[in-house]
Amino acid sequence: MSEFGFLDFNLVPLLPEVFLALSAMGFLLIGVSFGDEARRVIPWYALLALLMTGVLVSQVSFDDAIVLGGMFKADAYSGFVKLLIIGGVMATLGLSMRYLEQEHIDQMEFYVLVLLASVGMMFMVSAVNLLSLYMALELQSLSLYVLAAFNRQSPRAAEAGVKYFALGGLASGMMLFGISLIYGFTGSLDFGTLTASMMVMQPVPFAVIFGLVFLLAGLAFKLSAAPFHMWTPDVYEGAPTAVTALFAMVPKLAALALLMRILFEPFAYLVPQWEQIIIFLAVMSMIVGAFGAIAQSNIKRLIAYSSIGHIGYALIGVAAASEGGINAVLLHMLIYMAMTAGTFAVIMAMRRGGRSVERIDDLAGLSRSQPILAYALGILMFSMAGVPPFAGFFGKLMIFQAAIGAELYALAIFGVVASVVAAYYYLRIVKVMFFDEAVLMLDLNVLSGPQRFILACSVAFVLFFILSPSAFIDSTQLAAAALFPGR
Amino acid sequence: MDVIAVFAPFFAFVLAGLLNRQIGDRGCQIVTCVGLLIAAAASIKLFLDFALGDQMPYVRVLAEWVAVGDFKVSWALRVDMLSVVMMNVITIVSSCVHIYSVGYMSHDEAKGRFMAYLSLFTFAMLMLVSADNLLQLFFGWEGVGLASYLLIGFWNEKHSANAAAQKAFIVNRIGDFGLTLGIFTIFLVFGSIEFETIFANVADQAETAFVFFGHEFHALTLIGLLLFIGATGKSAQLGLHVWLPDAMEGPTPVSALIHAATMVTAGVFLLARFSPVYEYAPFALAVVTVVGALTAFIAATIGLTQFDIKRVIAYSTMSQLGYMFFALGVSAYGAAMFHLMTHAFFKALLFLGAGSVIHALSGEQDMRKMGGIWKKIPVTYVLMWIGSLALAGVPFFAGYYSKDIMLEAAWARDTGVAHFAYWLGIAAAFMTAFYSWRLLFMTFHGKPRASAEVMHHVHESPPVMLVPLFVLALGALMAGAVFYQPFVGSAGGHEASAAHHTEPAHESPERWNRQAFWGPAIQVRPGNDTLEVAHNVADWVKRMPTVVGVLGIVLAFVMYILQPRLPGRMKEIFSAPHTLFYNKWFWDEIYQFVLVRPALLLGRMLSLGDRKVIDAVGPDGGARASGKIATALSHFQSGYIFQYAFVMMMALVAVLSWFAFRMG
Amino acid sequence: MILAAVFYLFAFILLLSGFLVITARNPVHSVLFLILAFFNAAGLFVLLGAEFIAMILVIVYVGAVAVLFLFVVMMLDIDFAHLRKGAMQYVPLGLLVGVILLTELVISVSAWQFNSLSQQNLAVPEIGLNAATNTQALGAVLYTQYVYAFQLAGLILLVAMIGAIVLTHRVRPGVRKQSIESQNARRPEEAMEILKVQSGAGIS
Questions:
Q1: pLDDT-wise least confident of A165-179, B87-101, B447-461, C149-163
Q2: Is C109 an 8 Å CB contact of chain A?
Q3: What pTM was computed for the model?
Q4: Any idea which architecture C1-80 has in CATH?
Q5: Does the distance separating the beta carbons of C121 and A197 come in below 8 Å?
């Protein structure tokens, strides 16, 4: 192979992804050959495969290897984010199993698609080339489009899927256009070459900035940052709750990690330019997240707005453009994921007469009928609102600190104001659970063992984070440092 | 000792809260009361060590907490005179309230939960006062907010209680916002949130200024004002006071503990704790003085006209807190702490006494439906007299010493702002005396206005409720005279000119001297020592509060006992001010109009949707076209995707245009 | 000279037919214009010397995709006029946005000064330069330099396939299928029962 000697065919850094992709295909084969018999075991196989992948990720050495023609990079940053992704997906699967049975959509394709989406997300965080970035993003998006419409019986799910698909197509188009502008004016797709070119090309061609705007617009859609958020409430509401849980937890994290890599690697010399875009997105997201949720009556829509708001806070940390900022964003997303997992466990427990209900008013009187559930959700809501001493407070604290460190005072103040406004609707849920009279009771003992386990872990995390925050902050710091080599 | 004092209530809470079902209601009551008594005993021991022994202030580090880069914080207890005084007030009043609650809540279903909440609150409050850094203080600050929310809304079947709990929480969040910003600013200026570091470096930062939005701000003044916003929320000062009267929806013991004696004084404590910083921020101090004086005055005017017995006392609390703030504002930190302590005793006494009255009248709170019951509940009657005498500042009761020294200090400051505070304070003192006796006369004297059935049931409270009242009454009687010298007395040790003050009878120990007593906990710059000057002001300044107090009592006697028809006539003659006072100066209505409605409107507008978003974006492009689109869209079944796509495109073009404009 | 003329010819027809795709009233005509557009695009590729991509475009897009479109348009009875009526509401605002976008892009491109750096950066195909055919050269880089992207594309197609099946396939309970192995596995003992019938007793 001397002719291809310049290529690094070292596949070791890709081992986790390759393993997961092969497992997904294997499960597909098993599922197709054994039919109904496989339905029971595939979820557990999938969990096992994810666990193995996690082990592989943590074992592969992060010597910043860039392999396969400069397409893929494994470093401490991608490793940490991948572990978070795997954790989030495992939590989703744990939450989903019982729910899918209850809704009669427990097909093995669900697990295959979730695993393939995870592969896509893992590739996303490791992408160091605009081409591989786009391919990985599409792999993830396409799986998610299908998952959104997974419940064929429900017209709302179909509508959600179509909406997500059509708008996602538009966002992909924007991104591709942006990438082509960047390629046209710099002649390269590779992050390393782009960095070097940006350093030399001063002033940077106007069209490259335009390309960056297009690229960021496409990514903002994946992040559901306002004003590219319009799909979020509809899709969250329409998709099956298990899928909504996945949407709320994992893809945003992957997209955010990708965004940060793009901003801090190839476009590190354009900070003054992209900072403005990020601040715009952050402010809009916080406004929409804080005010949009006030009049919602459906809890999944509420969570959608809440996630938009949380992305707004995360973007403050990105706008800080510092190692501390990235550290804060990673911690914030970690905490947000943990809180969301627990919240969705409670949402899945909302069933009446064997059918799932989603109105906030359906939670009325929960403190009497199922006090443990009510207290758990209460704690999670307080944490989401950023009330100390719960974990959610620390994520926001770190973010605002980073913003102040970067002298973005107005943005930090705006963030604090938005979180004060947002506290209103989180507290409304608490009020409904504890102070309103129930008209009809929710079913008791809906949750399965794995769901209870996840809820317990989530609440424990939120409650006890304060005791030893350093345990988490240390690892996010390591990951953040990897994006700033030698700086 | 300090650890026991702080954590005993916490263990009581954990036991009562988690093992509620296992140990039963009786068990919860015993556990929490014993926990509090232990804490109180430990606090008193600490106080004696400090006051009589030669214990020096110290910091006890319990554990590392957060260590991120330069940002290091540990769990630590800061034990100095300031925190020890607060710990004593909190644990003693809280013990009384715990024991009282056993009787008061005897008919309630969730006794265990109530007791657990009370203990949780006490723990959070102790955490707040013993904090050694701002993060821990904030932790306690939010903790008391949470416990207060839970306790105000304790009777959650009452809609008004829920509304009041939410109101308290949200208004307090606004204050907390100020505090948060204050903490950020402190971190920015001092690079630390540990008290030790901050106070040690104040003098170096005295000239630091920020440039922010093109204006220059004096850093310490900014810090002072931001912390004061936090204090305003917690201590119900003017502007953020609207939650306190509504908080009276909670059970009466809660009102006594949280909304009279402890939580509302957290703001006073915060400012006293930051005395080293405030000493370098004269403008912030002036603001504190003005807001405090206005609060004292306005709250007193509202108190004149209310009929709900608990609300009258609530407004009186607000008014007294106003006094404390203007005392802080004139650098008389010791005087503010002194009044904080005496006020805690007599106001808790008044509240619990009022609770006893309400208990006797089967839950009636409207004074217009009371009257003529003094013979039936003589013990409560006498105790309420003691509380009122102390509140009105009648000589030799606790309030007399503390209120006089604050007013004297205000006069002694000798600035326009301070004189303004003095005169408003005198006016408020007159009204305080008046409404206190209005309350007494309407509640206990005259003809019974309650129904015969209720009157038949009137009974004295059980001993378990009366014993705590005796303890508090003792405080209301004695606390002023005994602690006058150490809290606010002349630094010289003996006063020559304060002839009309009765000196404490027993001989003073070595530490029984103001400066030695507070030690480094309160720092006053040399030129600002108003307390020292206060002992030498003119005689009329000193006599004024007492004179107007007695006048107020006499007037109340004339209007409500001699000429019962007079109040009605007065109401007609002064109808305009009466309407203003009776409606609480229309604060709630103004907030409803200015803040609450627009916020709700904005929320509805944004969520109603997407149509409206287009409407809002449209005017930039083609106003008419967008109007048509908005109406067309409602008929257009599958148009939502288009619409969403459209918003995306517009946003993209907007950002691009922004760059084109900036760079082109 | 001739090359330039041909380029402009193809480009002009491409733009024109693209415009007609969205303005034609009859959806069938739209699809036919789309096919014309594809052909012209293929012509442009040929001019660039990328004959493989040109062929792929014709075979895949014209031969498969566009024909599928045609089937769908003809078979489904969609009231396009109605859909269009709604969409037309957007035209004024859409045009405005489009014009702004176009202006900005033109400004940005025209403001550009040639930078030799971008020329250096251009990925020069290091293999297959001297290879005989376009196809061979493409194949040589596709399976080496771009193997990662190629494999990812494969995964995407797998997902698309699974997705299409999941969303449309349904099990119809009433359908009977021939199962050859079960027919072969059948033994006479299972299929037949031999009864001894006593004569004269009738069948019980």
A1: B447-461
A2: yes
A3: 0.63
A4: Up-down Bundle (1.20)
A5: yes
